Amino acid sequence: MTQISINGVQRQVDADPDTPLLWVLRDELQLTGTKYGCGAGLCGACTVHIDGQATRSCLTPVSAVGARKVTTIEAVDQGQSARVGQAVQAAWVKLDVAQCGYCQSGQIMSAVTLLSRNRKPTDADIDAAMGGNICRCATYVRIRAAIHEAAK
Ligand code: FES
Predict the structure, then answer these.
(1) Ligand 1 pocket, mutate which of 56, 105, 107 (most atoms under 8 A from CB)
(2) Which ligand 1 atom is at minimum distance from the Cα of 134?
(3) Which atom of ligand 1 has the smallest separation from the CA of 132?
(4) Whole-prediction pTM value?
(5) Going by CA atoms, what residue is nearest to atom 4 of ligand 1?
(6) Shortest CA distance to 136 belongs to which of 100, 87, 92?
(7) Measured between alpha carbons, how far is 69 from 143 in angstroms, rounded to an integer?
(8) Pick the CATH number of 79-150 from 3.10.129.10, 3.40.50.2300, 1.10.150.120, 1.10.10.10
């Protein structure tokens, strides 16, 4: 058994220590907002926060989480990230960012990490912070606009 803090709650999970956090979230805890894209750290669909830092859950063994706090898209509008999380989600809705939507939870998690550190990011800051989140529908222009909107 491994104990981890997920969205402010201590959870006991029965998973092999090498199991990627992504699969613990999706299969054991039914937190399916975190998506599987590539499984190799290349697409960003699986992005969650670990102690507020955008992190690829497909590359993070559950045993590596330790006492750090995991936040998923289901709770990005609560707790420590509440203010920024709510602003980002409102901007995403206002600017109708999503197309198919599959990558968008990962996009939002990365955007919240960016805005938590940098309240007024430039286009270059956004491109640097979001470069690891791939969108097959190419919603990048709306993502950038929504980050600026959330920063207002
Ligand atoms: Fe983790 Fe693609 S599924 S980066």
Answers:
(1) 56
(2) 2
(3) 4
(4) 0.97
(5) 41
(6) 100
(7) 26
(8) 1.10.150.120
Phi first, then psi, for residue 134 (nearest 5°) are -90, 140
CA–CA separation, 147 vs 56, rounded Å? Answer: 20
What is the Å distance from ligand 1's center to 130 Cα?
14
Q: Which residues line ligand 1 (CB under 6 A)?
A: 36-39, 41-46, 56, 58
Q: Is the pLDDT of residue 1 over 90?
A: no
Q: Any idea where the domains of the chain sit in the sequence?
A: 2-75, 79-150
Ligand 1 center to 103 CA (angstroms):
10
pLDDT tens-digit readout, 98-118: 999 999 999 999 999 999 999
Tokens standing for residue 25: 């979230």
- Closest ligand 1 atom to Cα of 39: 3
* 64-90 mean pLDDT: 96
Which listed CATH number (3.40.50.150, 3.90.226.10, 3.40.50.880, 3.10.20.30) goes with 2-75?
A: 3.10.20.30
Tokens of 46: 């699986």
Q: How is residue 145 written in tokens?
A: 């606009």
